[in-house]
Amino acid sequence: MKTFSLYVPRDSLIHRINPIDKILYTITAIAVPLILPSMAASFLCMLISLSLLAAARVVRQSLPVFAFVFLILCTVVLIQGWFYPGNQTPLFGVEPFVFHAEGLMKACRIGIRVTNVVAAFLLLVLTTKPADLVEELVRRGLSPRIGYVLDSIFQILPQMMNTTRTILDAQRSRGLETEGSLWVRVKAFLPLIVPVVMSSLIHAKERALALEVRGLHFEGQRTWLREKRTYPYSREIRGGLLLVLTASIVWRILG
Amino acid sequence: MMQRSSWFRFSTPSLVLIPVAVGINYIGKLFAGTLKLPLWLDSIGTVLAGMLAGPAIGALSGAINNVIYGLTVDPISFVYGLTSILIGLVSGIMASRGWITGWARALVVGLAVGLTATAVSTPLNVWFWGGQTGNFWGDALFAVVLAQTGSVWLASFLDEVVVDIPDKLLTVLVAYALFRSLPKGIKQLYSGRDELETLDG
After folding, report:
1. Residue A194 to chain B, least CA–CA distance (Å)
2. Partner A, chain B 98-127, Cβ-Cβ below 8 Å
3. In this complex, how many residue pairs, one in chain A and one in chain B, have their CB atoms less than 8 Å apart?
4. Is B196 inside a domain boundary?
5. Which of A16, A173, A223, B170 is the most buried (most CB within 10 A)?
6. C-beta atoms of A76 and B147 within 8 A
7. What's the mean per-residue pLDDT of chain B?
8. How far is A233 from chain B (nearest CA, A)?
9. How many domains does chain B have?
10. B1: exposed, middle or buried (C-beta count within 10 Å: 0-12, 13-18, 19+)?
11. What does residue A97 show for φ and ψ, rounded to 5 degrees?
């Protein structure tokens, strides 16, 4: 069945790491700059996440996301450079659009933070197959029903997208205007979304009946379709991350 | 159909509603994009799930929506997961308290959801983007207010208000329109009344 996600299949060490460990890494990479609000800490975290992305050989796939982020960061540079409340040292530009040193520093700090957060999430998202992530979470105690919900989304979404395309074509062929003035486009929204929602909810009802018959609410020992996978370096990673977190908290308290 | 309680109605139909809610969110955003509407309209499903199946399912739909969206389209949506959770929660609570019995009341729900979303998103925006939202008109306002008053929080709040209030208002109204037009056979699945009637005397 067709599924879709940002996952990029590659044969790298980072792809073979336990998804839970990657989640823990993401949390640590975001938490450390929050605990240690110096620019050096954020910068270091950003560099580590970026080099891990390179090590996983998914840099090319992360570019579209970074391109989008970069676009917003450009407006951040303009707005903070011109209007940052702490601005004192004018650098260049004409009134009222003068770039100030403090604002540009602020923009730089925002840029590093955003890149760090996005890179940390991308590392998880690009190197982890969603199904593996869900399976590990269920083995760790997530309710199997929620696990089913997560897994099923990856199959239901493409189906709904297909229905959507059909309905868009059908309504257009009946003469629904989808282009023109704002009001025309607003009016077209309901005739498009209502049929999709109706048909998906009717399908959902049938799916609920089918699942109920197959024992989704079964209480008791469940078995696994796949054997438990072993992931490398799990203990080392968790120990290391815990060490980094403790160290940064200690640093914050002492420093 | 199965065990329920008033808050945690995690019956099979409710669970199956979650993927559909996520799908509706996607499609709302897709249509808003196709029709080039200046709003996101990407939480219609979350609000509808809250209206149909209660606050817990609404909140869960919101959380799962942003996780899935983060995994499939845009990792930044992880940051705004909390906003989504509260959107589902507030619409679910207000719906269960009888606030979806007419258009005027639905309008109030829309305002409440919009204000909640603003209240949660503003600190996230200040932390993440230094106050901006990434929406062109909102950010233009952000720049003007920041230049005039020098208050990042006020500027960021107004930036979020002008984008979020109309967006959530319309989202809730669309969700309410959908809710109204649903067949009884579907609403009944989530209504929580599962007493059996017997025809035998």
Report:
1. 6
2. none
3. 176
4. no
5. B170
6. no
7. 87
8. 24
9. 1
10. middle
11. -100, 70
The CATH code of the domain that includes B153 is 1.10.1760.20
Write out chain B residues lying below 8 Å of A216, CB-based. 12, 15
Please check whether residue B48 lies inside any domain of the structure.
Answer: yes
A24-40 per-residue burial string, b: 16 or more CB within 10 A, e: under 16: bbbebbbbbbebbeeee
User: Which residues span the domain enclosing B114?
Assistant: 12-190
- Check if B184 contacts A (Cβ < 8 Å): no
> Distance, in angstroms, between B144 CA and closest chain A CA?
9
On whether residue B68 sits in a domain, the answer given is: yes
Could you report the per-residue pLDDT of A39-93, keeping only the tens digit for each? 889 999 999 999 999 999 999 989 989 998 999 999 999 999 888 888 888 888 8
CB of A244 within 8 A of CB of A28?
Answer: yes
> Which residues in chain B have Cβ-Cβ distances shorter than 8 Å to A114?
128-129
* Global pTM value: 0.88
User: Confidence band (pLDDT; 50, 70, 90) for B201?
Assistant: low
* Mutation for testing the A interface, residue in B22, B31, B60 having most A CBs under 10 Å: B31
* Residue partners of B6: CB distance under 8 A and separation at least 6: B54, B96, B192
In the block, which residue shows the tokens 């040193």? A101
Hey, are the CB atoms on B143 and A205 less than 8 Å from each other?
no
Which residues 39-78 in chain B show a CB within 8 A of chain A?
41, 44, 48, 60, 64, 67-68, 70-76, 78
Tell me how far apart the terminal alpha carbons of chain B are, to the nearest angstrom.
Answer: 24
- Establish if B115 belongs to a structural domain: yes
B186 CB-contact burial (10 Å; exposed 0-12 / middle 13-18 / buried 19+): middle
Task: Collect all residues with Cβ–Cβ distance below 8 Å to A252 and sequence separation of at least 6.
Answer: A35, A36
Closest residue by Cα to residue A145 from B14, B62, B112, B169:
B14
- Spell out which residues of chain A touch residue B78, defining contact as CB-CB under 8 Å: 121
Which chain B residue lies closest to A79 (C-alpha atoms)? B143
Closest CA to B27 of B55, B60, B65: B65
Task: Identify all chain A residues contacting B22, using CB atoms and an 8 Å cutoff.
Answer: 153, 157
**How many other C-beta atoms lie within 10 A of the C-beta of residue B12?**
20
Bridge partners of residue A100, in order along the sequence: A90
Cis peptide bond prior to A64, omega within 30° of 0: no
